[in-house]
Amino acid sequence: MTLRRTLFVLIGCASLVLSACGFHLRGEARLPATMQRVHIEGAEPVSPLGRDLAKALGRAGASVVDAPGAGVASLRITSNRLGTEVLSVGGNARANEYTLRYHVEFDVVAAGGESLLPKQVIELTREFTFDASQALGVAAEQDLLTRELQREMVQAILRRLESHAAP
Asked: Which of 52, 70, 97, 115 would staple 87 via disulfide (CB 3.0–4.6 Å)?
């Protein structure tokens, strides 16, 4: 019985210590009040960036509308490029390593045209190795890294929007 009681006390102490350390989940982004209604320009709604950004803005409490109008901020995506570059070449003159580079530029303007957030540039990269004997695996890895970069880009954009909202 004392072993059970000791275990209970240890679990209680551990939970008390963990709760006192200040750890908490990040949660959803807090957008500025001027972005409660937002229109996304420059990203097709069916593109991974447009689709995921609309969902993330909705989870953050914003209402994504189809057209600009009164009281609607515009999130303008002016550049959206995803590309692959050769990072290193082996002795046989074939590429051994590649870099996936995702580059997005955006700004936010109010319905009246005044700038709410000046032009922001975000560039994310991932490196991967090419092995000719594992060609199918490399293609799958590249697809996985591309999807990961797209998700990270949406989160990076939201963090920039949130940092603009912070006092």
From this structure: 97
**Burial of residue 35 (number of CB atoms within 10 Å: 0-12, 13-18, 19+):** buried
Q: Which CATH architecture has domain 25-165?
A: 2-Layer Sandwich (3.30)
Which of 77, 125, 122 minimizes the C-alpha distance to 101? Answer: 125
Sheet strand arrangement including 95-109: 63-65, 37-41, 73-89, 95-109, 115-129
- Name the band, by pLDDT with cuts 50, 70 and 90, for residue 28: low
- Helix (H/G/I), strand (E/B), else coil: 22: coil
Q: Which residue has the higher pLDDT, 55 or 1?
A: 55
Strand 95-109, strand 115-129: pairing: antiparallel
Least confident of 42-51, 70-79, 98-107: 42-51
Q: How would you classify residue 27: left for phi > 0, otherwise alpha for psi between -120 and 50, otherwise beta?
A: left
How much is the average pLDDT of 45-70? 89
The 3-state DSSP class for residue 24 equals coil
Between helix 48-59 and helix 135-165 the angle, nearest 10°, is 40
